[in-house]
């Protein structure tokens, strides 16, 4: 733990207090100047806004789609063979690596790709939309890709929770005259609440740190339309070679993640 976690964190915090030449013995201690540079950079606030939109939209959609598919896979109206077939279909996006997902959707969203062909054939678009290269659609496009790739995590977790709810609760609710919606609101959701909160907090933390998908689809562009905190920090370090400023940005992201982690740990302790 000390070698793999504590030491790198301490080193990054120390680098964030130095000037730009962190590998030089003559590097100077500049205090919080690097933090001031990050916090006065307009691109940083663009990255914060994009990260919030990307994360909140993804988490809400992951929950909604995951819960819907989990209830479909848990319904007694379908045979076990049918549910097994759809379980395989629904979980497929989770089996692909990020690189495959990025390449797949770049091909699908290409101006000459399948998505444009289908939308153009029904008259929804002109058929040549630059989904990932247009600043007005790029953020929505990468958010959609992330939703498609991440909903199985919620689906599998919620399906396990649904299968663990005692059937006696539903039978008692039906005896009391509860409608299916009332059973869902008063039986299903309260029983799933601990799982929902845990999954939402974890998904929020993971999504705010999403880097590979953004980098391999848009690279944070076009014109910072999909710039995230992760890509912003990466560019500071490996495009502008301002490692100390990038370290300051990383520390800020770490502090934000620690706030989310605090609420997750607090919820887990309350649940235990």
Description:
It is found in: Cell membrane. It comes from Cellulomonas triticagri. The chain has about 270 residues and is an all-alpha fold. The protein has a single domain, classed as MetI-like fold (Orthogonal Bundle). It contains twelve helices and no strands. The longest helix is centred in the N-terminal third of the chain and has 33 residues. The radius of gyration is 23 Å and the shape is globular. The two termini are about 25 Å apart. The model has no long low-confidence stretch (mean pLDDT about 90).
Instruction: Count helical runs.
Output: 12
Query: According to CATH, what is the topology?
Result: MetI-like fold
| Main beta-sheet strand count, sense and barrel state | none
The CATH architecture comes to: Orthogonal Bundle
Distance between the amino and carboxyl termini: 24 Å
Radius of gyration: 23 Å
- Average pLDDT, rounded to a whole number, is 90
CATH class: Mainly Alpha
Succession of helices and strands = HHHHHHHHHHHH
Strand content: under 5%
**What is the name of the CATH superfamily?**
MetI-like
**How many strand units?**
0
Alpha-beta content class: mainly alpha
Provide the number of structural domains. Answer: 1
In the predicted model, the low-confidence regions spanning at least 5 consecutive residues are none
**DSSP helix fraction:** over 70%
Shape: globular
Membrane topology: Multi-pass membrane protein
Keywords: Cell membrane, Membrane, Transmembrane, Transmembrane helix, Transport
GO biological process, one term: transmembrane transport
Family: Belongs to the binding-protein-dependent transport system permease family.
